[in-house]
Amino acid sequence: MKLSSNSFVDGAAIPGEFAFCVPDDAHHVSLGSNRNPHLAWSEVPEGCRSFALICCDPDVPSQGDDVNQEGRTVPAALPRVDFFHWVVADLPATLREIPAGSFSGEVVPRGKPGPSAPHGSRQGINDYTSWFAGDQDMRGDYYGYDGPCPPWNDEIRHRYVFTLYALDLEQLPLQGPLTGPALRQAIQGHVLAEASLTGTYSLNPALL
Description:
Elements: E1 2-4, E2 21-24, E3 28-31, E4 39-42, E5 50-61, E6 80-92, E7 97-98, E8 122-123, H1 128-131, E9 158-167, H2 180-186, E10 191-201
Antiparallel strand pairs: 1-4, 2-3, 4-7, 5-6, 5-9, 6-8, 9-10
């Protein structure tokens, strides 16, 4: 199976229109257009009954002490953890493309509604849900796609890995909240093929 995009080139930078935050000279960052990127796939295996999709940033700092703090940097050597930006289950087996902006077209404080999503699919909550949990103005359940917003003082560019899974089930038997780890667990033993596409993003002026 092959996964491609008209929105960015594999291994290259993701344009700001597909990001939650963009650089801002006065305030470090400002809110972006937050559109989901275009994705298309081919060479689907026989027996595919649905697709699942995950976008994960594996480069999120494991400790937040230095994140977005004036006069500090997030060191490149700091251990990193996964942060899920998009979790989708039950995309129909006939689907071959997700147009840019068809799942997300703006930043929605407190999160977009879910889990119902285009094409009869289900979207899970992404990790902005926990990130904003202590913010009175932004906290809520963040369903669907919310794009890159890495720390503006991080020494490394973050990677955003979009992975599409062809599954032998029409619907995943998921119980409880649909999260990235829950989806990864649910698809075990049901993956016929998978394909990935990686983009990079940074808000650090030294890396732009």
